[in-house]
Amino acid sequence: MSTEIMAQDWGRMWIGGKWVAGEAGSRPVVNPATGQAFAEVSEASVAQAQEAVATAQRAQPAWGALSPLARGQIMHRIAAAIRAEAEPLARLVVREQGKPIAEARAEIGGAAEFFTYFAEFARRIQGEILPSDAAGEQIWIQRVPVGVVAAIIPWNYPAALVSRKVAPAMIAGNAIVLKPHEETPLSALAMARIFEAAGVPPGVVNIVTGDGASVGAALTADNRIDLITMTGSVPTGRRIMETAARNLVPVSLELGGKAPFIVMEDAELDLAVASAVTSRFMNCGQVCICNERMLVHARIYDAFMDRFVAATRDLRLGDPMADTTDLGPKVSLAELEKVERITAEAIAAGAEPLLRGGRPEAAPVAGGFWLTPTVLAGATPDMAIMRDEIFGPVVPVTRIADFDEALAIANDSRYGLSAYLFTNDFNRIMRAVSDVRFGELYINRVGPESLQGFHTGYRNSGPGGDDGSHGLDHHLRKKTVYVNHSGSSPVRLMPW
Fold first, then answer.
1. Which residues lie below 8 Å from residue 420, measured CB to CB, with a gap of 6+?
2. CA end-to-end distance (rounded Å), the chain
3. Where in 173-250 does DSSP place strands (E)?
4. C-alpha span between 372 and 328 (Å, rounded)
5. Is 25 exposed, middle or buried (0-12, 13-18, 19+ CB in 10 A)?
6. Confidence band (pLDDT; 50, 70, 90) for 9?
7. CATH of segment(s) 259-443
8. Per-residue confidence band for 451, with pLDDT thresholds at 50, 70 and 90
């Protein structure tokens, strides 16, 4: 399989268990480390996207009729195959997305774990039996598949997010049509090879490549879709929600964040510094739960910042295929220029660069989208850089006087995905549990989130989430059955 993955014909997508060429032209896939195209991927037409939905709709009843245990056995085979192909899959992630190989290996490990975890729900999809108002009758509330799922994923985790969408859909008995981001489609296509080899029935999983404005829009507007699950930007999420409303289709959206990273005066300083560096600069800052704004208590501000800046300087920018690399390139030139613009605007507004990054004079690999870290002191809550998602290796810092100020600044955000607190004061911890208005709160640690947790946000970070038992719930709908076994019609007790 390794040879097949690396030598795959990227000009075909997987629809109905067949590899088909796209009808809407092709698009190059660029290696962020070199800036050079290394593959060409065909793009689906709107008609092909619609055919993928029709194929999924035809395949779903038979898949849903299988026992969950039978579905889980196929998913265990998928997980085993991902682990067997971990190194070539990780190297493919690096080539198309740019993250360091160590992080890519961790991503592939997570991709396998999603299938293992959700396969274990085969014996745990439970319904309810309730007493009826009438004798000789029971009320059953069953949890049944929603039907056909449309999934849209971004570019920052091109393999793991395939698993995050496909695994819960499969164990619930649904069929799914997934569109990867147009800049990073290869990992999804490689995963399709694994699905095929593992014996996923034709049409149960479909991978459709193409542009979001055409293919993504066609999928989310199709009235045969029963659930839309999407990870990506707020503007795209809004458009999807508006489209879904026309068909009354439920949505699960995870739309990014502006995570506050609060460090109080009693925090374990070494832990807080190491955690802040990891949370800000992993995947070149291209993570929705990244440390996006640091709020540091005045009493330890200088000591914390000295260590933080020193640790940031020590990060090794390098070829992402090297095991020693800490920081790889940005995913694209457009993303790099966006971060440069945000940084320049913040400095013009009065932020002070304690560490001024930018494009390196001597890039680790010529032609890539390289950006070294920037640390900005003196950021005020009203600055755009404290309010808008950066998604790059830049962090603004605000000095805070007390916990009340930290809470006020943290909660004053249109985002509400993840937040961090470093303190040993139990009263503060419990106040944060009550008063931090974010879907995830990490105390004295950083992410990523656990499979059995629930990765969900508030406000513009979107409604929904795919993880754990609560994520699985999105992929099941409830059916109420009244079972009368008395031999006579029950007396109607209520006037409706």
1. 259, 260, 261, 262, 275, 279, 291, 441, 442, 443, 446
2. 61
3. 175-179, 205-207, 227-231
4. 9
5. exposed
6. confident
7. 3.40.309.10
8. confident
The tens digit of pLDDT for each residue in 173-214 reads 999 999 999 999 999 999 999 999 999 999 999 999 999 999
DSSP 51-81: HHHHHHHHHHHHHHHS-HHHHHHHHHHHHHH
Tokens coding 119 = 């396969």
Query: Which segments of the chain belong to CATH 3.40.605.10?
Result: 2-255+462-480
Q: Are 198 and 81 within 8 A, CB to CB?
A: yes
How far apart (Å, rounded) are the C-alpha atoms in residues 385 and 361?
A: 25
CA angle 272, 277, 280 (to 5 degrees): 115
Residues annotated as catalytic (active site), given as ranges: 254, 288
Tokens representing residue 351 in the block: 């932020």
Report the candidate in 216, 207, 201, 126 with the shortest Cα–Cα distance to residue 166. 207
Q: What is the pLDDT of residues 122-155, one digit of tens each?
A: 999 999 999 998 899 999 999 999 999 999 999 9
Question: Which regions of the chain carry the CATH code 3.40.309.10?
Answer: 259-443
In CATH, 2-255+462-480 is 3.30.470.20:
no
